[in-house]
Every structure is written in structure tokens, then in C-alpha cells.
Amino acid sequence: MRLQKEIMSDIIIRKAAAEDVHTIAEIEKASIPQPWSEAAFADALTQENAVTLVAEAGDEILGFITGVFLFDNADIYSVATSEQHRKKGIGASLLQAFFDTLPSEVETVGLEVRESNSAAISLYEKYGFERVGLRKNFYEEPRENAVLYTKKLR
Ligand SMILES: CC(C)(COP(=O)(O)OP(=O)(O)OC[C@H]1O[C@@H](n2cnc3c(N)ncnc32)[C@H](O)[C@@H]1OP(=O)(O)O)[C@@H](O)C(=O)NCCC(=O)NCCS
Hints:
Elements: E1 11-15, H1 21-31, H2 38-46, E2 50-57, E3 60-70, E4 73-81, H3 90-101, E5 108-114, H4 118-126, E6 130-139, E7 144-152
Helix pairs in contact: 1-2
The structure holds coenzyme A.
């Protein structure tokens, strides 16, 4: 799957493989507090109802998205772009590719995000997610509220 025209032309998005897990975990660790472990990403790759995609240029992984689906709903667990490649449309393209990869019966996509994460909130709102709730003190280190978002796919 090729990315859209505003993205550098040599970037592709593809399903993640076992050999990508180390880099995915490194990007996650550098991007958010309380990151998933490498083992958690590896485990997600073995789940039939999980989707992990990477954005890649040459043999360098620039970002990833991971989530699961069950019946008519999917949840995004994590999306991140490596710091030096942000603001180039990679996060948006990963999000769109995630939607495109979901089975047709999936109607809604949910996620939670730290209340202070304005970059991610801006990304989600730009791509049609609506704020549906708040979980007080959901996150640790630092303790922070989670904002819940949902997007209707169809
Ligand atoms: C959130 C994140 C994934 C965005 O990735 P990205 O590749 O930089 O995103 P894009 O370039 O595709 O940006 C798409 C839109 O997101 C929003 N956005 C991205 N970065 C932003 C920033 N620093 N400030 C405000 N809005 C931002 C904008 O609406 C942007 O559209 P625009 O370029 O037309 O203004 C990236 O900042 C990141 O990896 N953050 C750390 C990890 C993280 O917080 N993940 C979310 C956990 S819930």
C-alpha cells in the first residue's frame, strides 16, 4: 500500500513482522510514558484480531500503529512516529491504513489518550474522532486523565 501524495514517495505502510518488533518498541519507548514492552508487541503479532502496521522508508521503520478488533469495534492501542520524522503525514497515513485494514464489519474505532497529548488529540480530531468520555487519573507516571475518543467508520 503506497502512502498519499503529500508523503515522501519512498515510504510504504505494511503489516509488521517479528523482526520489526524491536524497533517498534524502541519508537514507543522514546515516544510515550509507560510504553508497551517488546514482548507485548511480539504477542500482538500472534493475535488474529490484532493489527500492527509500520511505516517504512528503505529499511528504516519511521512509525507504527497497533490495535485490535472484535465484532463491530476496534481499538487503537498505540500510534507513534519516530521523533525526527514527525509532522510529515506519517501518523495520519498510519491511521488511514489501520482503518483500511479492518474487516468490513468493524463500524467504530475507539482509543484513549492522555489529556495533555495535544499532538495526538489534534491528529485524532482531524481524522474524525469524537470525544466521548474521560477516565479520571487513568494513567500513571505521571498521573493523568485519559480522554476517550470514538470514530464511526460507516
Ligand atoms: C501523535 C503523533 C503520532 C503524530 O504523528 P505525525 O507523523 O507527526 O503526524 P502527522 O504528520 O500525520 O500529522 C497529522 C495531523 O496531526 C496533528 N498533529 C501532529 N503533530 C502535531 C503537533 N505537534 N501539534 C499539533 N498537532 C499535531 C495535526 O492535525 C496534523 O495535521 P497537519 O499536519 O495538517 O497540521 C506523533 O506526534 C507521536 O508519535 N507522538 C508521540 C506518541 C504519541 O503520543 N502517540 C499517541 C498515543 S495515544
